[in-house]
Design a protein that fits this description.
Elements lengths: L1 H27 L3 H9 L1 H27 L4 H24 L7 H32 L4 H24 L3
Length: about 170
């Protein structure tokens, strides 16, 4: 268990080195105010970055399932959600909210809250996709992007207020 904690902190240290590298560049090219904005709201910016990456994962998996494998719209959306939710949990826990729990019970509670909240936003996502694509005939890719924007906002609020609250 101690090795895992050290490994997690190594991942965070790597992230911080990367962040500091780019923040120093911003400082040197006279964008100090932008760098300071990031420094002052690091958690929110990390959430946006990793939320964007989770969105890329979600849209890529959805697109592969729907367009390449011709899997049903709703099923493709659920497959994409599963992959993206696992990615999001790991990045939110270790890189964004830096959640450290001491017991298996606390970890189970955190995982349960995370995936319960994500199931709620999956429902929102599914409603948007089914109504807009299947019922109204709107473009699937465009609606997937719009649905993901709504979901990112909801997920941040739920993560901050319920899952990883400090």
């Amino acid at each position: 268990m101690e090795d895992k904690k050290q490994e997690k902190s190594k991942s965070l240290k790597i992230l911080e080195v990367i962040e500091d590298f780019f923040l120093n560049i911003l400082d040197k090219i006279k964008l100090k105010s932008l760098a300071d904005l990031y420094r002052n709201h690091r958690e929110g910016w990390r959430y946006l970055i990793f939320g964007f990456l989770a969105t890329v994962v979600n849209i890529a998996v959805y697109s592969i399932a729907f367009y390449i494998f011709n899997i049903d719209n709703a099923v493709s959306n659920v497959i994409a959600w599963i992959v993206a939710a696992i990615f999001a949990y790991l990045t939110n826990k270790f890189m964004v909210f830096i959640s450290r729990v001491d017991t298996k019970k606390a970890l189970l509670k955190e995982i349960t809250y995370f995936f319960s909240c994500r199931l709620f936003t999956l429902l929102v996502d599914e409603i948007i996709m089914i109504v807009s694509v299947d019922r109204l005939g709107m473009p699937a890719f465009l609606m997937k992007v719009i649905a993901n924007i709504v979901v990112i906002i909801l997920n941040f609020i739920l993560s901050k207020l319920i899952i990883f609250k400090k």
